[in-house]
Specification:
Layout: E1 2-23, E2 27-48
Antiparallel strand pairs: 1-2
């Protein structure tokens, strides 16, 4: 008897936004906004066997 079940999934993502603005040549506005995510799933079964009948 041998049964194997495997499943692997991984998702990852990143997004960033930079903003730079100069106002009246002597003022500046700088901003950064970002997001990141990661999802990981793993499922694994291994079953092995030997049968001996005498």
């Amino acid at each position: 008897m041998q049964i194997e079940v495997s499943r692997l999934g991984k998702y990852a993502g990143e997004a960033y936004l930079n903003f730079n603005k100069t106002i009246a040549k002597d003022h500046s506005l700088n901003a950064m906004v970002g997001s990141s995510f990661e999802v990981s799933n793993q499922l694994e079964y291994n079953i092995a066997g030997s049968f001996l009948l005498i």
